[in-house]
């Protein structure tokens, strides 16, 4: 199963954010499928670059929203975005230099990060922005089961840190 397949559970009830998140998941899903199907290196490069560029665009948009509405967790939220981009770009350079092989297992940590970030950090932003009115199916279904992992300060589990080092 593709760990990046969009699920309505991830919807935060905010059309622009949900549409950006869907696009992000779709790009990651395409990259994962390409890896699984043994696509050529230049194709994989292209998928990685598109994912990174869309993630950067979405994160900047979200950070602008946080500044506009005075979201109190801006610094921590921004740090999670930066960590994701840093890991993606280190994966890119390792892959391009031939030091790392891009496989499905390598990519799964990205899927875990996306799910936790959307259902944890982005969910809190959506709730603040909607003054508590945001739909919370994401939090109800996903956060309860993984509370320990989701509450890690960086939003990334220790297990993932060790796998991807
Ligand atoms: Fe975010
Ligand atoms: Fe987001």
Give a verbal description of the structure.
The protein has a single domain, classed as Four Helix Bundle (Hemerythrin (Met), subunit A) (Up-down Bundle). The protein is mostly helical. Helices cover 72% and strands 0% of the residues.
How is the topology of this model organized?
Elements: H1 15-36, H2 41-69, H3 74-97, H4 104-129, H5 137-143, H6 147-150, H7 158-164
Helix pairs in contact: 1-2, 1-4, 2-3, 3-4, 4-5
One fe (ii) ion (FE2) binds at residues 21, 58, 62, 118, 122.
Number of helices: 7
Describe the biggest sheet?
Answer: none
**N/C terminus separation:** 24 Å
The count of strands amounts to: 0
CATH topology term: Four Helix Bundle (Hemerythrin (Met), subunit A)
Q: Assembly type of the shown chains? A: single chain
In terms of per-residue confidence, which ranges show pLDDT below 50 for 5 or more consecutive residues? 142-165
Q: For the residues shown, what is the average pLDDT?
A: 81
Helices and strands, in order, run as HHHHHHH
Rg, nearest Å: 16 Å
Which CATH class is shown? Mainly Alpha
Strand content: under 5%
Q: Give me the CATH architecture, please.
A: Up-down Bundle
Structural class: mainly alpha
Q: Give the CA-based shape.
A: globular
Fraction of residues in H or I helices? over 70%
CATH superfamily: Hemerythrin-like
The total domain count is 1
Distinct ligands: fe (ii) ion
